[in-house]
Specification:
- The chain is an alpha+beta fold.
- It has 4 domains: 44 residues, no CATH class; 203 residues, Alpha-Beta Complex (3-hydroxy-3-methylglutaryl-coenzyme A Reductase, Chain A, domain 2); 114 residues, Alpha-Beta Plaits, CATH 3.30.70.420; 44 residues, no CATH class.
- It has 15 helices and 10 strands.
- Strands 3-8-10-9 form a 4-stranded antiparallel sheet. The chain has a 4-stranded antiparallel sheet with strand order 5-6-4-7.
- A hairpin with a 2-residue loop joins strand 1 and strand 2.
- Helix 9 crosses helix 12 and helix 13 packs antiparallel against helix 14.
C-alpha cells in the first residue's frame, strides 16, 4: 500500500479504484466488485454511507427471526442479525420448548447509567469533599438546559458523587454521575451533561475563596460516560417442575436437570469454561442488539466486566434445583435504547422494532435478556445430551457444500446422505469425490 492524502474527499468510486490498484492484480476484481453490494435505492445508500467514514460498500449479515418467545405472557417473534448458522435455530427450539412450560419471565431491576468527570487536583481531600457537598445541587442545576426534556419523560440525573481515587493515582478524583435516559441510549445526553458540568466545576474551584491559590488549579482529564452499567440490570428466568422437562434427547428429566445444573456450575467455577459459556449467551444477546441498532461492543464489554465483578470471571447464568423445581436464570446489565441513533436512520432497525411492536427500552432489555437465556439453554442442553457438533455441523452443511462449489443436485444428495452421519468438511468433500460428480 502507498500513502495517500485526501482519501476521505474522494468519491466511493475513486476510493475503490485507488484500492484496487494497491492490491495484487489477482485481487483487484474483488475490490472492483464492491459496487455490487450497493443498495439500488440511492437515498438508502446515502444513509448507509453516512453511518461511518470512508464507506466503500455495504457488508451484509443475515437478518432472521426466532418465533414462539413467550415473555411475561406476551408472544414475540424476535429479530436476530447473526452469521453463525446454529444460533437462530437453537434460540427458536428453546423458545418452543419453554412456550409450553410457562414461558420466560423477566424484570428490570434498574436503568441507571453512569458518566464520569475525571480530574486532577492538589489540595486537602477533606476540604474538597466539604466544598462538593455544598455545591452538589448547584452542579445539577447548572445543566438543567440539557436535562430539562429528559426530566419531563421521567429521566435525568439521579445523583452525583465525588469519588476519591488518590490511593490509585496521585491527585486523581472523579465526579460520578448517575442518571436515567429512559428510551434513549443516552451516550450523547450523558456526555453533554458531563462536559457542561465539568466547566462549571472547574470555575467553582478557581473562584472559591476557601481554597488557597495553589488549590484553585483543577485539571480536567476527560469527561465520558461509562459502558460499565452494573445498575442497569435485567433478570430473566424459566422454571417448571423437573418432571415437566420430560425426556430430553434420551435423558429422563431428573438426569437431564442434574447434568444441566452441573454444566452451569462448572462455568461458575472455571473461567476457561465460563468464557465459552458466556459467549453462547452473547450469541443471542448480540444478535438482538445488532438487529435493533444498539451498541453491541458496549453491551459485550459491560457483560464480561459484570461476569468478573467478584474478582473471578464466572457464568452470567445460574441454575437451581429446589423443591422439585428446575429454575434457569440470568442477570445481565443491558444499556439499550429504542429512540435516537440508528433507530431513526437504519430502515432495518425500524423493521426490527416494528416486529417487536415498538417496545420501550425497558421492554427491549427484557426481550434481549430472554434471548440470551434461551441461547444458553439451547447450547448447554446440546452439550450435556447429543453434543454441540451434531446439530451445529448439520446446519453448517450448506455452507460447506457452497464452499466446495456443489451443484443443486449435489446439495440435495448430500442432505439425504448426511441425515444420520456426522458432518465435517473432510466428510463432505470425500462424499462429493466418491460420487464422482463434477465440482
Amino acid at each position: 500500500m502507498r500513502p495517500i492524502s485526501g482519501f476521505s474527499k474522494m468519491t466511493k468510486e475513486e476510493k475503490i479504484q485507488w484500492l484496487s490498484m494497491q492490491v495484487p492484480v489477482e485481487s483487484a476484481p474483488l475490490i472492483e466488485s464492491m459496487n455490487n453490494f450497493w443498495h439500488q435505492d440511492q437515498s438508502v445508500q446515502k444513509k448507509f454511507d453516512e453511518f461511518s467514514e470512508n464507506t466503500l460498500t455495504n457488508y451484509y449479515l443475515p437478518f432472521g427471526v426466532a418465533p414462539n418467545f413467550l415473555i411475561n405472557e406476551k408472544l414475540y417473534a424476535i429479530p436476530m442479525v447473526i452469521e453463525e448458522s446454529s444460533v437462530v435455530a437453537a434460540a427458536s427450539l428453546s423458545a418452543k420448548f419453554w412456550q409450553t412450560r410457562g414461558g420466560f419471565k423477566a424484570v428490570v431491576h434498574s436503568m441507571t447509567k453512569i458518566g464520569q468527570v475525571h480530574f486532577l487536583w492538589q489540595g486537602q481531600t477533606a476540604k474538597l469533599e466539604n466544598f462538593f457537598s455544598t455545591k452538589k445541587q448547584e452542579l445539577i442545576d447548572s445543566v438543567k438546559s440539557i436535562t430539562h426534556n429528559m426530566e419531563k419523560r421521567g429521566g435525568g440525573i439521579e445523583d452525583i458523587e465525588l469519588v476519591v481515587m488518590t490511593d490509585k493515582i496521585e491527585n486523581y478524583y472523579q465526579l460520578k454521575l448517575k442518571c436515567k435516559t429512559q428510551d434513549a441510549m443516552g451516550a450523547n445526553f450523558i456526555n453533554s451533561i458531563l462536559e457542561g458540568m465539568s466547566d462549571v466545576w472547574k470555575k467553582m474551584i478557581a473562584t472559591s475563596e476557601i481554597f488557597e491559590a495553589s488549590e484553585r488549579d483543577l485539571d480536567i482529564v476527560m469527561c465520558i460516560l461509562s459502558n460499565y452499567t452494573p445498575d442497569c440490570v435485567v433478570e430473566a428466568w424459566v422454571e417448571c417442575p423437573i418432571e415437566d422437562l420430560g425426556m430430553v434427547a434420551g435423558l429422563v428429566s431428573d438426569k437431564f436437570a442434574h447434568k444441566f445444573a452441573t454444566a452451569v456450575n462448572i462455568a461458575k467455577v472455571d473461567p476457561s469454561r465460563a468464557v465459552t459459556h458466556n459467549k453462547g449467551i452473547m450469541n443471542g444477546v448480540d444478535a438482538v442488539v445488532l438487529a435493533t441498532g444498539n451498541d453491541f461492543r458496549a453491551v459485550e464489554a459491560c457483560a464480561h466486566a459484570y461476569a468478573s465483578r467478584d474478582g473471578q470471571y464466572r457464568s452470567l447464568s445460574d441454575v437451581s434445583l429446589v423443591d422439585g423445581k428446575f429454575k434457569f436464570s440470568i442477570k445481565i446489565p443491558l444499556a439499550m435504547g429504542t429512540v435516537g441513533g440508528l433507530t431513526t436512520l437504519h430502515p432495518l432497525v425500524k423493521t426490527s422494532l416494528a416486529i417487536l411492536e415498538n417496545p420501550s427500552a425497558e421492554e427491549l432489555m427484557k426481550i434481549t435478556a430472554c434471548m440470551g437465556l434461551a441461547q444458553n439453554f439451547g447450547a448447554v442442553k446440546s452439550l450435556v445430551t447429543t453434543g454441540i457438533q451434531k446439530g451445529h455441523m448439520k446446519l453448517h452443511l450448506l455452507n460447506i457444500l457452497t464452499g466446495l462449489g456443489a451443484s443443486v443436485e449435489q446439495v440435495e444428495e448430500a442432505k439425504k446422505y448426511f441425515t444420520d452421519k456426522i458432518v465435517s468438511y473432510t466428510a463432505v468433500r470425500n462424499f462429493l469425490q466418491s460420487k464422482e460428480l463434477p465440482q
